[in-house]
Structure formats: C-alpha cells, structure tokens
Records
---
Amino acid sequence: LRGIAMNPCQRPSLDQWIVGSSAKVGVSNQLILANPGAKPVTVSVAAHAGIGKAELGADSTVVVPAGQTKRVLLDGSLSDQDRVAFHVTAQSGGVAVSMQSTALDGYTPAGVSFVTPSQAGRSLTVPGVRIDDAAGAASLRIVNPNNSPVSVNISTFSEAGKKPLPGGEAVKVAPGAVLDLSLEGLPAGQTSVSVEASAPVAVGARSTSRKAEGAPTDDAWAAARPAATSGSAVYGAAKARIAAVAGAQRADVVATPISESGREMAPVRASIGPDSQGVLELPEGAVAVRYESSAPVSAAVATSAEVNEGVGIDWVPLASSGLAEESRRIALG
C-alpha cells in the first residue's frame, strides 16, 4: 500500500456521518471509535449503499469501553457495493469517529485514506476537492437518509465565484440511497462544492491521483465543513494549500504556517469575495497551520507528495474550537 493519510483529532459527538469508500474486493474499511468518557458508550452504526439501506448484522451495535478506542473491521459486513456511507450515533455520551480505508487493484496500490465525519443538513459545503490534470478523477457523494426522495442542487466555487455544476440541478436521490456524481470536466486544481437539498442529506467528495497510466493511485475523501472564523490543522510534511469558501460576506483570511519545530512562519493572506473560493499556498517546511478570518469560511488543507512511483494526496479539515459546531439553537413556543 502506498499513499499519504492523516487522521486528525476528532471531537466526540452523538451523531456523525462517514461518507466514503466502497465494499468491493481489494478494499478494506476499519471504523475507529474512541470513547474519552468515564462510562461505556453504546454506538449504533447504520449503513447505506447505492440502492438504499444495508444490513450490517452484528456490527450495527458496538460497545466502546470507557477511555478506550475500538476498531470495527467492516470487511464482510457488506459486499459488492460501489458506494457506501455510515451513520454513527451514540445513545449516551459522545464518541470520536473516523474510518481507515485502504485499497488494492490486484497488486497495484489504489489508495489509502481516513474518512472524517460529516453532519447532515440542507445546505452543505465541501471545501478543497482536488481536480487532477493527469489520469485522476473526482466525484461527489450524496446520501439521502430520509424515507422519501430528495432533490438537490449542486454548485462549485472558484475565485470567480459560485456557479451551478453542469447537470447538477434538481438531482433526485432515492430514499436511503447513496449517489455518486462525477466532477469530471472541472478545471484542474482545487475546487469546492456546495449542496442545497430539499431535506437533510450527508455528503462527501473523493479525489484520486495517478502519475501515469498503470501507476499506483492514491485517494482522499473530503467532508462537509461548517463555516468558522478560526481553525487549525496538522497535516504533516507535504506540499499543502488551504482552500477556503466565503459566504455572503467578503473574508480576509490570515494563515500562519507552523514548522516541525513549532516555529511560526511568515503569514499567508487572501481576500476572498462573497460566495467565492480562495486558495492559500503554504510554504515548504510547514507541517501545521492555523488561520483567522474576518468572516466565516468553510476550509480544509489539501496536500500532495511524491510516494515511490506515484503521487500521494490527502485532505485534512481545518477544525475550529468546536464551541460553535457543538451548540444548537433551541426555540421555545
């Protein structure tokens, strides 16, 4: 197996989505559940596939002991599914969730990645999806957890602003089903994607990279990120850039790269127009970054590195303090 993959720190939560990977021959998936609490937590895992909800059998309920991490090997629970997603809920107490996915195409490495959590919603943004100019590919994955069809409209972001994805208007997703849409034809580089849905959905996006025909490939799974005015990430020794999407307000973003020794490096700045994407190139020698923005942005770090005969790629979310993400507005009638 060849590639690059970083599993960032995850905050415990009661309700999370893992949108990515497949259940095919040569693919291995491990769900990683960490319980930082003082009591055991019972976790329910619901699976969705291309045609609708799928049965996980004994893996649908997992007890995670207090202060421990449990790995659940999903190989064999599902079979011959090109598209999968998992809804992870805890009955009491929160768990931190991610999924390690590795793939082989015969004897050829076909990707190693960590799929990080998403939340369901009607308006979602996936920042920093890599569009390869070689033989790679990219796609958007949409999960409909509802009991009725959902209609979605998909748009992409660039420095020029927001525009509809060709063929991405009024797309129907069947109840319980997982749908993949190709992002082929978009300009090479980093793009970001928004999904507006008639009912809550969960989304993710896959990028793949291949240096040449027949060479090993690597993949990276991106997740929907909430907008925030500050955040940070550790992404390791790789070529890196931040992709940030502004909302209705212009956002002035200042990113401070951090070296392996912990030294702050010269800041990188970008002014991002309303409903637009900005890309901040991070300097060589940096392994982490923190940012501050004058207005909320949805942001992530996209990385790449030469790995033997191929190009490894990864996607790391820029996480905020979590206070805003974990809070919920409650209206009393």
---
Amino acid sequence: MQIILDVSRLLESAQRPSPTGIDRVELAYAKRWCSEPPLPCTFVVEVPILGFAALPRALVAELVAAVEDRWADGDRSAAAAIRRARLAAPFGRGALTELLRRPTPKAFLLVSHRMLDRPGPIEALRRQGCRFVPLIHDLIPVLHPEFARQGHAEKHRRRIAATARLADAILVNSAATAADLDPFLSDRVPPPPITVAPLGIAAPEVEAPPVALRPYFVVLGTIEPRKNHLLLLHLWRQMAAALGPAAPRLVVIGRRGWENENIIDMLERCVAIDGIVRETGPLPDREVASLLRGSRALLFPSFAEGFGLPLAEALALGVPVIASDLPALREVGGAVPDYLDPLDGAAWRNAVADYARPDGLARRAQLARLAGWRPPSWSEHFAILDRVLDNLPHPFPTARLAAPGRAAMAGGAGSARNDTLR
C-alpha cells in the first residue's frame, strides 16, 4: 500500500510557539513515516492555485526535527526548514503525477480536517485511484455552534458532509466522536466504516520542580468559552475574597482564542484575582510539563471535547485531574480523574479546597488510582491504522446515495470539474 500523507498543516503551524492537538497528530504521523523505508509514504502539501504536490522526504524529516525542537523547548526557530519546504513544494507536481500513474494500491491520509470544506483536490485523487481515509477529531462546531467562531459551524458541516460522501474508511479519536459522527453517514449505502484509534501520548521528560510556596492548579487550553475558564475565574475570585493571600494559585496556560471578551476582562481587569491568577500564554511543552508536575491538579471544566489531550498529558505525567463529566474524557481517563458537572460551581470549589490541602483525601485517592493508569501510545494507534489500511476495499466498492438526508442537507457537494490535482 502506497501512502500519500498531507502535511500542509504541519508546514503552516511549524512556526507556532506551541501546537494545538491536531498539530500534534499531524506531527506524529509525519514522524512515523519519516522513520519508515522511503517507498511506503509520499508526503504532499497544498500549493496555492496548483493543488497537491509531493514534498521531498528529506525536507519533511528536517521540518519534523525542527518542529519537535521548537515545540519542546521554544528556543529554536523552524524558519529555515519552513522556507526550504515552501520553495521546493511547487516543483513536486511532477513527482506526484508520476506516482499516481503507477498501478499500486494507494491511500490518501488527511489527519487535520484541512481542505474537507473544499474537497475538489481530494475528489481528484480518488478519481485517480486513491482511497481516502480521514481522521475526524470532533463534531463540536456542528453540535455546539454556540462555541464556534463566526461561520465555523457551517464550514465544519461541509467537512463532515465531504467525509460522508468521499471517505472509504474513517478514523476517529474516541467512541464519543464515532457516536457523534455516525448519524451523518446515513446517506451512504453502505456507509464508510468508522474505526476508533485513540491518540498517542508522549509526555516530555522533566525533573520534578521544587515545591511551590503556595499550592497551585493549572488550566491548559485555548482561552475560549467552551473551555469554561469563567467558572474557574469566578471561583478564584470567591476564594481570594475568603482566604486572601492564603488562597491557592491558578495558572492559565494557552493562547487567547475567540468569543472570549468576558474571560479576558476577568484576566485583565479583575483586581480581586490579581496576584492569585497568572496567565502565561502559550508555552513550550517542557515548561508546560514542569508546571503540571508541580501542581496540585489539572483543572479541565470543559463543556465539550472530542478526546481531551490535556487530561491524558497530565495523567501521563502523574498529575491528578479534576475534569468535566464528559463521555470522551471518561474514555481517556477511565476511573482515575474526579469528574464533575461543568456547571456545578460548589462541587468544583469543594474539590479544589480538598486538593489544595497537603492531606486532601480526594487527591490522595486519585493518586492511588493513577498508579494503574496506562497512557495510550502512538504505536497502538498506528497498529489500528495499519489494519484499517490493510482492509480497504480494492477496487472501489459501489456505493449509492440515499434520498437527501442530514449529510446532504449539511452541504456536502464538492467540486468535480476535472481530473487534475488541483
């Protein structure tokens, strides 16, 4: 099986000081196939106007190494690797065209949601013999449009409609995502199979930090309404009023996102939490891991998640987690974290008070449970992927569309103007 892996998002995000969860996944895929023999995988990127083009393996390996260093320590720029990859990309059209002419089975992997809302180039690859396997991370913009940026809900509906129409098999990161996705596949007869492949966790090695003068907690993730930062900020204002300087500290890690005016107002203008709550912005992985290791717990009061990487990363470091009671988070954490209703402020206040104490019973109990938890690995993820690829139908199965239903109503029509790679 010849793999064609899109690394366009990796090239776009390489200069960021820290990655999103989807960025991490595309990096893990690129790293996996950079370590394989040359033949099984061809890396491609999207070139404006031209469409997909092959990127030399050596340049992808250079990009992977530079990005790993930058995201781990934040002290190295990936600019040189990015520049060389971008300069080479337009010249890779011929190599991809030659590859597509070969009669060997081929599969196009897309693990970033990228281009699913404008699937013309993906359709062109399928018409030239490539089977299509996307990885769907969540349906949050569709199911919870109140948390999405303006226009993003409709964009994600187009992505899911294109997935339903074009995919030959679908990977998802959790059974919760599979359950959300399944109703949107009903217009395909038979529908493409969905396979759950939990994401791998590779926590950086860091030394245990010195004991903090004051107990502190960490909340990790983009600052946006879905992550429910406001619950914690109001809770910390209450604790600051009740306990004064003796209140535990809260460290807010992550970039500022969207629709977050009330949260930013609290962070910037609430004098009651000044000196008690600290916003760091995005940080390199080792610094995040060090802060987590020294904390009393990760706080994860999110309203919706497809997987919950921060929870898995914290548990992999041996750090307790207090999390929202969501199906996806229970899949990852099992019986280890303490799960609370994201709207139950009193329960969160009581849990934080217990975990802040040196002799807190709930924290001690979770540490005992944590000893038996095992993080999901990338080797397990890729073993599942390999089985999916081995079982792809060849030649293409005949599939028919049912009468227009939910997927069709979601706007799944894509461009089918020609058979070019555009």
